[in-house]
Amino acid sequence: xxxxxxxxxxxxxxxxxxxxxxxxxxxxxxxxxxxxxxxxxxxxxxxxxxxxxxxxxxxxxxxxxxxxxxxxxxxxxxxxxxxxxxxxxxxxxxxxxxxxxxxxxxxxxxxxxxxxxxxxxxxxxxxxxxxxxxxxxxxxxxxxxxxxxxxxxxxxxxxxxxxxxxxxxxxxxxxxxxxxxxxxxxxxxxxxxxxxxxxxxxxxxxxxxxxxxxxxxxxxxxxxxxxxxxxxxxxxxxxxxxxxxxxxxxxxxxxxxxxxxxxxxxxxxxxxxxxxxxxxxxxxxxxxxxxxxxxxxxxxxxxxxxxxxxxxxxxxxxxxxxxxxxxxxxxxxxxxxxxxxxxxxxxxxxxxxxxxxxxxxxxxxxxxxxxxxxxxxxxxxxxxxxxxxxxxxxxxxxxxxxxxxxxxxxxxxxxxxxxxxxxxxxxxxxxxxxxxxxxxxxxxxxxxxxxxxxxxxxxxxxxxxxxxxxxxxxxxxxxxxxxxxxxxxxxxxxxxxxxxxxxxxxxxxxxxxxxxxxxxxxxxxxxxxxxxxxxxxxxxxxxxxxxxxxxxxxxxxxxxxxxxxxxxxxxxxxxxxxxxxxxxxxxxxxxxxxxxxx
Length: 598
Prior knowledge:
Elements: H1 5-21, H2 37-43, E1 47-51, H3 55-59, H4 80-90, E2 94-100, H5 129-140, E3 143-148, H6 162-175, E4 183-185, H7 203-213, E5 218-221, E6 227-229, E7 244-245, H8 259-264, E8 271-272, E9 275-280, H9 298-306, E10 313-318, H10 329-345, E11 355-358, E12 382-383, E13 391-410, E14 418-427, E15 432-439, E16 446-465, E17 470-477, E18 495-498, E19 503-519, E20 529-537, E21 544-551, E22 562-582, E23 588-591, E24 593-597
Helix pairs in contact: 4-5, 4-10, 6-7
């Protein structure tokens, strides 16, 4: 039958009407508090470099007291371009520099301080390290960030109401003179003790100053508001990690939530405050020649990568320049090894050519199909209907593959939702599904490692979600077995002593020692020794106190081996450490070892 032009046109019009009237599912409603555009861009950086550099680099201490002669700061061959080139080659996306640490020393010639590079021997007082580093970051396409400690042990106004405005002025000086700043790093240190100066920080003023001068900067502190500390400096965020946190009534420092809360976040937290995991490639934050052979191993750094980036957190790795002003070869070599290991681990996504299906898809709408999980477009995703808080995804591979790592990503512009999931693979030997792993939160990125298996099918069971699950990407990988988490490792023998006890070391004979070391339990939650007295004796009867009411610097946050050097070598047979204060509330102290440095 031949149709007239009018009949064909009417038929096409009716088809158009029919198509237009076909119901389409609405996109899921946002759940809870959400990340800002700046927070999302920050999270997508994933991996950045921290640089601790200043007078402490030259005095071999972790926390200077502000009384050091500024002329001690004198790097002999400083090259910020070398720092930036190293960070770029390592795969890092930015650098954050300790522009002012607790000693108050400024790495730029601040008009608000007399304890700066202007008073140093470096470049005859004419240098500006922030200028050199910000220029180097621009050259290498890196983000530039700054750490400014509000604690200032040098400034005469510290401890008075006037200081808050001085610090705000200092912030403006930095934030308006060196280009875009992607992250402003604060800590809450205010640690001069019971009889030292105390400053009531005006955090509202500080934050308003940052946002006025750098409206897109992410502000780091224990409670954000841009991103938060994870409650430890060992390099691991919680197995469960929500990007939300209650912040009302809390402050950075001693007024912060408990480390456990910071480590895991809160599912119903009032603010979006994602985690940033900061740790150092060496035992300390500042360079020391004594740690040249103590750079973290590749295995350790890879484990930190999985427990930071792989647990919905950004990874901020400290790499302290040496006294020349260059990143030490041992550190840069390890960084390149880490870059290669990460690249090789995730070079091949075994889901290429796979198909994925879901037992529930939102409105059966292809815009929300499970196939979106296999593309590389961030803003496409799979999701379920509002009423479905559980679902199962099944993946069929084109052939058998050997694998041990699954990547999941939630579409966090709509909130964080997933609370628990399980990974299973098809086991041909038993003819059934076998469990590979079970985990909790996902967030921006989750990497789950499990014992190596071989199969052509796997499935992801979303067991609990606070709203309908929304995932935008999955990946499957075979990583080297050496990077899998250890099974039941035997812990080092941990000793405990009572509050009134001391630890005595008998050398067996009289020896000349230059100090002692204390190896604490490497857990922030452990009641390690924070403050102590140290005595020495030749006969075990007459004791001479050589250190009184002394603090192990930063041990609450970073419980690693502490080497304490006396002002001069001492002849002893016996050494005694008398604990005075634990790192947390406890009736006992813990330690792994105490010994002498000969």
